[in-house]
Structures are given as C-alpha cells and as structure tokens.
Design a protein that fits this description.
By secondary structure, the chain is α/β, with parallel strands linked by helices. It is 46% helix and 12% strand. It has 19 helices and 21 strands. β16 and β17 form a beta hairpin. α5 packs parallel to α6.
C-alpha cells in the first residue's frame, strides 16, 4: 500500500474510532400531533377493547398471574378481560425511565424523560452486502454486526441477533449468540425472549459475566428486552414465558404490537393506535402483576400495509405520524417509548435513505426513548445490510448532532473575525476558524462533500460503495474488550454444558 493509501485508510478508521461514552438526550420539545380530546378518545377506546374483547393469553402461568391480579379469565378459551381501572392502577406502578448497564460500569444507558438509546437491527433471516449479495445469515455475519455495534459510539445496546446464524443448529444457536455478546463487547445487550429456557440461560450467563447474584442484577438492570405480541390481541405462550422470567428479575421490557393498519389492525392510523395501546397496556399490566415497579417501555411499530401486496410500507407519512402519536400516548401513561429506524427498500439506495429518514424524523421528533432496529434494517426487516448499517450510522450521527445545538455566545459569534475579514474576504484562515475547524461542524462518516472533479478522480464511488469500504475498515480495526480468562472459561463451559443438555433432551 502506498503512503497516500495508508493515510487515506487511517483517516477512514479514525472517523469510526469509538468516542467517549455519552448520555444521549433531546434538546427540543416533542411534536404532539394529537389534541387532548384525541388522546382521551384513544385511551378510552383501548380500555374498551380490553374490557369488551380482551386478549388471548396462551400461557397458563400468565393467565394465573392476571387472575390473581383481579382480571376475569376463561381458561378454556385462553381469554382474559381487563378491567380498565385495574389496568391503570398497575400501569401507574411502572417508572418513567429505565436504565441498563454494561460490564464496563461507565457504559450505562437511560431511556425515558428526555434520554434515549440506539440499537442495531435485530432478527433478519437474510444478510446482504455489495460483494456477496443477498443470502442467508451466518454466525460470521452475526458476529460481524456485533463487532460493528461494539465500535459505534452511537449504538449503546448490543445484540438483537442482527442476522440469524443459519449455519448453527437452530435449537442451540442462541447460546453462541449470547456468548458472542459477552466476549465481543462490554456494553449492555439484548437477549431473546422466546421461551423460558432462553431467558434463564441469558440470566445465568449474565451472573457469570457480571460476577453478580440475581438480586444484584435486579437492583441494577443489565438487559433491554424487546419482544412482540401477536397482533391482533394475542400473547403467545413462549413469548409470555420469556416476559415472566425477565419481569421477575426487574429487567426493562417492551412488548411491541405490530399494528399493521389494514392487516393486523384497522385500516386507519386511529384504529392502529387503539389496537397498539390496548396490547401494550395489557402487557404492562402483566409485567406489573409479576413485579410491581418493574420498568416497562411502551412499544410502537405502527405502519400501513401496501394494499396491493399486503406488505408493510415503512417510512411513509403514516408511519411518521404514528410514531409521533405513539410518543404522545406513552407520555400520557408516564412510560418510556420504543420506536425504530425502518424502511421497505430492497437495496441500500435512495428509497432506503428517504424512508429511513422519515422513520427517524417520527421517532426523534416524537422523542423516542429507545430506537430498536437503529442501524442495518433493509427489505422490510428481512435483511441485515452491511452498507445500510454504515449509512444508518451517518443518519443517526446527524440526528444526534442536531439534538446537540451549537452554542450562541459572543465568543461563538466571532465579531473580531468579521472585523479581520471585512467585506469580500473569507474566513478559512482566521484565528476564530482555526480554533474550531476540527469540531465546528458534524464530521460525515459516509458523505462525500468534495467537488465533482475530485470525486471522479477517486473512482466516483457512490454512498453504498463508500459505506462498504468503511464497513471493511471497521471490521479490520476491531479489537475485543478485555475479559478475565476465568470468566471467559466459565461462560464457554456453561454454553458447552447447555448444548449437551439440549441435544440430549432432543434424543
């Protein structure tokens, strides 16, 4: 590599080197599109749904907990009807903020009351990049996304299985994912909530990783849990098992309805808001019945279906409005709120960018407390994209910079530099500029602001091609955090033992 090439590569890696841990906060008031009467109508309608229609709760243990909390249960139909007043008594127990911490004690995340957190994409079965195209995800891809997340100063919560590891056995691959979260980063992470055994294994591994008891983990939470109800109005048994285990440990939970207007919810934003609110209030009531005061996060994922195909149409004006309105409803209940950065594009192209920006505007102006799927989401959630991950870091960086407004002071105004330059000059070389040129403006990760001639001489790379290069540089520069060898060995031994037990049970 030439000296010029080394300088260019080093400059790229420096752009993505981790910065000091920071508390992400909003600078501006939320946009609230609903009137007070509209909020009240959505609230009343959601309680009417819970009282008159109820929810199908497919876990007998969850139904028993809800019966003990004062709700009417039909065991044969697996149906629970929720008295509105009792629901609100329980919802009122949930705190307005939730915090989680990493193994590094400095890496603490607050969600709610003006604080927000960002996470990477979670759950796609497929992965894509410019070189290999679209394909099933592998464990290497999964760990690559974890390494990218570990290096970002914006993404503060690890995991969510950014892509599925199809090259590992389905029944035990979650253990490899958990081990990767513990060994590739020291940030807090997201375990899976499908089934009691997956929840228990995450808890047992956290006890090893942190060197703490369950009481200590409960007193100062370490996990952020995001799971889903089966809209409309169903909570399945395995999801309920995971919710129960983590709620008993007092970990922050969001049970997010997928209120797809026209498919799983009425074909209006108003109807979707009511369906979403009903399901999240019922789920919050369950969590509070398990452990009063446990942190619960209002989950929103409202979007409209493309009525020609039935596919979700993410990043639409309806999605943006739904996000802002969801934030307003969450604040009405005094709960933190989860939103997302999503799009329906099949490639990391202009459509992916403008739909993601619409999603981000809805979440940011609605003051979301935590962004699930913050970076890497493509193709309506079917694909985790390497290039889109980097492009999303660019957009998230711009959003965070926008939420950090520049100071307006006499020193910043720079009247003396104006006197020096006078009329018709320029400010490139003034003392005022030279003191600030490294920090005055947002430093782009992917954007190329050079003129056409310089751009064309460097190979005329578009944004996705530049993102591909940055992604490779980040993976090449990755360094794992320090982990005590005895802790690593204990984690590896636990995973190996659990794999043997699971395989033995399967015969």
């Amino acid at each position: 590599m030439t000296e010029s090439g080394r300088r260019k590569r080093n400059r790229t890696v420096a752009q993505v080197s981790p910065r000091p841990w920071r508390d992400l906060r909003y600078a501006y008031a939320a946009i609230e599109p609903l009137s007070a009467d509209e909020v009240a109508l959505i609230h009343r309608s959601a309680l009417t749904v819970l009282e008159d229609i109820g929810m199908r709760i497919q876990s007998g243990e969850a139904r028993s907990l809800l019966r003990d909390a004062g709700f009417r249960v039909d065991e044969a139909a697996e149906q629970v009807w929720f008295d509105g007043d009792r629901v609100m008594e329980l919802v009122a127990l949930a705190p307005a903020t939730a915090t989680v911490r990493g193994r590094d004690p400095a890496k603490r995340v607050t969600m709610g009351e003006g604080h927000f957190a960002l996470t990477a994409v979670g759950g796609p079965p497929f992965v894509s990049d410019l070189e290999k195209g679209r394909r099933y995800g592998s464990f290497e891809d999964q760990t690559n996304f974890l390494k990218l997340t570990a290096q970002s100063d914006l993404l503060q919560i690890m995991g969510g299985t950014s892509v599925e590891a199809h090259d590992l056995p389905p029944e035990t691959r979650y253990l490899d994912y958990y081990l990767a979260c513990c060994t590739l980063s020291d940030k807090p992470w997201k375990p899976l909530t499908i089934g009691r055994h997956r929840a228990r294994d995450a808890i047992e591994m956290a006890k090893i990783w942190y060197g703490e008891t369950e009481d200590q983990l409960a007193a100062d939470p370490v996990f952020f849990l995001n799971t889903n109800s089966n809209t409309p109005l169903v909570l399945d048994s395995e999801i309920a098992q995971g919710v129960i285990e983590f709620a008993r440990l007092g970990q922050p939970i969001t049970v997010t309805p997928f209120a797809l207007a026209g498919a799983m919810a009425p074909a209006t934003v108003a109807g979707a808001l009511v369906m979403q609110t009903a399901e999240t209030l019922a789920s919050c009531a369950l969590v509070q019945a398990i452990r009063p005061g446990a942190p619960y996060i209002y989950g929103s994922f409202i979007c409209n279906a493309d009525m020609r195909t039935g596919s979700p149409a993410f990043g639409t004006p309806e999605y943006t409005f739904g996000a802002q309105a969801s934030g307003q409803m969450a604040r009405f209940y005094g709960l933190p709120w989860r939103s997302s950065n999503v799009n329906a594009s099949n490639a990391p192209d202009a459509q992916a960018a403008y739909e993601s920006m619409m999603s981000l505007w809805g979440a940011m102006t609605g003051r979301a407390s935590v962004f699930n799927h913050g970076a890497g989401w493509l193709e309506g959630g079917l694909v985790g994209s390497y290039e889109k991950f980097i492009l999303d870091l660019e957009m998230l960086g711009m959003m965070v910079a926008w939420q950090t407004p520049p100071a307006i002071t006499e020193a910043e105004i720079g009247l003396q530099s104006m006197r020096e330059v006078g009329a018709g000059g320029h400010f490139f070389g003034t003392d005022h500029t030279m003191e600030r040129y490294k920090t005055a403006f947002y430093a782009p990760l992917v954007s190329d602001w050079s003129n056409f001639e310089n751009w064309s001489e460097r190979g005329s790379l578009d944004a996705a091609q530049r993102a591909s290069k940055i992604c490779k540089d980040m993976l090449g520069a990755y360094q794992p955090p320090t982990l005590d060898p005895a802790t690593r060995e204990a984690l590896e031994d636990y995973v190996a033992r659990r794999k043997r037990e699971i395989q033995s049970a399967r015969g």
